[in-house]
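Morning F.,

Quick status update on the modeling queue. The single chain you submitted on Monday has been processed. Sequence for confirmation:
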Amino acid sequence: MSSLHDRHRAVIPDWVSLYYRRPIEITHGEGRHVWDADGNRYLDFFGGILTTMTAHALPEVTKAVAEQAGRIIHTSTLYLNRPMIELAERIAALSGIPDARVFFTTSGTEANDTALLLATAHRRSNQVLAMRNSYHGRSFSAVSITGNRAWSPTSLSPLQTLYVHGAVRTRGPYAQLSDERFIRACVADLEDLLGHTRDVAALIAEPVQGVGGFTAPPDGLYAAFREVLARHGILWISDEVQTGWGRTGDHFWGWQAHAENGPPDILTFAKGIGNGMSIGGVVAPAEIMNGLDANSISTFGGSPITMAAGLANLTHLLEHDLQGNARRVGGLLIERLRAIGAGVPLVREVRGRGLMIGIELADPETGEARPEQAAAVLEAAREGGVLIGKGGGHNTSVLRIAPPLTLTVAEAEEGAAVLERALREL
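Structure tokens below.
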């Protein structure tokens, strides 16, 4: 494995991160488990960054991919594409957006790029509001609206971005307030900010921040924001790349926790819908989606093979009520982890919804982040046979847990036991 690691370092950029002191090569998977090149078996609690949403080697998806590959793999959007149209019809109906149109991309980054293009063209403005601690991708425009220093390598931008309070409930100037007063304070901050700007195109927000450490505002914050935005004609883009498809358990989309004033103007998605295949996309009303006055296509977005995978995966998810499983098993797992965290002083908070859970580590006296300890738990969990992720704003000290949505109660208990040992070793 060391030779493969050496070869990686010789040809891959230094800024392409690898987990673990001794990086592992994952060779195959089945269900909620994967195996490395040395034959070690792991319970996958991260799913390729929330992407293997349903299960590894899900028979329905692998069959759909193989059958489509046997017919034709690629055509581009210049031709009618039956699988793309069928998946678009289903997503449009599920989105909650009226008169919806769907454009497919190859990633969440590209989906957010497209949403920004649509919003700025529609509003004829390059001013964008984003949330502090946010992450929306690694392209030039997505980096420019990312409110997380660790993932923003340049301050150059095609957009003028202003950052809003509200996405992080337990840190910052409003952390001590009740939920109701927290929302009022954040709305007042938004109103004040808009008093200092020219016309703003859109607010882009993750209902639950992914890379930021699975942080979320109180339910209803974005509904309250929506009232303010609507008065100014500003669009709301809901970045559902990590929160979509029922992962939060309570809702199919993250925005539905803030649904009092209707759906977002634009919704972006990716990751889980392909169960590992490269699918992203944007949903918007025809008025917004059809507003571009120049030609556009996608060479690889909506390819027949990825669309076949997405259709099979979405069908399996809905027919087996995986949103309900995320709510039930995720609820048990969160409570189990909270009970564990109560006995570990370095655990500042266990938070999340469904199968989207964060464990924040911090000094119990100062509240300072503890990234070294987070890295140590990551290593110890791997040694115990569980793969997790990490993230968080200011410093990477949040353990990220996001297993496939078919996780069983027994597997949740198994993973929690490994994490308990890893945390107590601190």
